């Protein structure tokens, strides 16, 4: 569910020169909520919010619900206050994923295989190789929109441009149920009429930092040099990106099969948690699930990140480089507790106790990144590993024995369910 700002003046005819405009950004309109209305026609015209429970957050809201100020990631309790007569529905990931799969494989793949899927309801397409058959990018966009509406009774918006940045901004401003072509000659003009947050990737923090330098719009951003933006942002890389974006320039290619960047797991407590042992137990479960996913994908992780969300919905993340690449919960869990204690400014000596936390926690989780294929990753034993190996009668290191135990648990869980067995403390 996009919350990017839209400019009504941008939704106009920018011209019909399609030369070089071979990138399409396709975005389903209020996808989860629209699918719920498609299977419950009686909800049409009413505010529909996907996300229920006093601890839940809004996953999606249709356009009728957004008129009440409801957006994604908002606490469901707050959404109930804003729209007490709204229709609140539970999230049905299986249903949404199934329809998404059909759209990608039975509609979009009919046009080209040059598709970069970035989420369950959004993708980029390079249609340059499909023009011989379809004649123009707008013909493709019209057909896609018609097929999605006819087959699934939902709508999508399409942006057509010469690069991913402008195509995405075009689809955002075409919403809902629209199509917007931005000719190459109009890229800079189109982008520069936007507020700063109109550029994907500029969040509240960066906007505030740019505002402090007197930059309040993309037009003002475009007037700055890269050197000025480097001083404003403190990063030469960020400055170059912002300068190019403010001129409608984007050199990123369509990525067909993006390698998995991270594998994560997080959970929300039924009540705000103030005990270390309870948070630690949840982190252990998250580590087990992430480790099992790593093993199933034959991947190893080099970096661990712990995420905490607090009752006011603010959040904090911290990460560390692991001593060795791993796919074992027995390695991830101690590191996750270490990070947890650092984040809360608590001494490491309280690990394993029921100490009271320095602040209550609403949600906790981990993610593993820096992924590589296990078969192609060299794991160098540490000195402690080598000493342990020489002292152990079996000649096996503890880490090896623990990983073997976890593989055995994988087989048990596969047969009896994911919660049938867990590692001991």
In short:
A hairpin with a 5-residue loop joins strand 10 and strand 11.
Describe the structure.
This protein is of the alpha+beta class and 425 residues long. Among the domains are: 60 residues, MutS, DNA mismatch repair protein, domain I (3-Layer(aba) Sandwich); 55 residues, DNA polymerase, domain 1; 155 residues, 2-Layer Sandwich (Dna Ligase, domain 1). The chain is 39% helix and 20% strand. It contains 16 helices and 13 strands. The strands form 3 sheets. The protein has a 5-stranded mixed beta sheet with strand order 5-6-1-7-8. Strands 9, 10, 11, 12 and 13 form a 5-stranded antiparallel beta sheet that branches. A hairpin with a 2-residue loop joins strand 5 and strand 6. Helix 13 runs antiparallel to helix 14. The chain is globular. The model has no long low-confidence stretch (mean pLDDT 90). One of its GO terms (cellular component) is cytosol. Its main location: cytoplasm.
How do the helices and strands line up, and which of them pair or pack?
Elements: E1 23-28, H1 31-39, E2 48-50, E3 60-61, H2 63-66, H3 76-82, E4 87-89, H4 93-106, E5 115-119, E6 122-126, H5 131-134, H6 137-152, E7 156-161, H7 164-174, E8 179-181, H8 187-191, H9 204-212, H10 218-222, H11 226-233, H12 236-246, E9 262-275, H13 276-296, E10 299-309, E11 315-326, H14 329-343, E12 356-369, E13 372-373, H15 383-391, H16 398-416
Helix pairs in contact: 11-12, 13-14
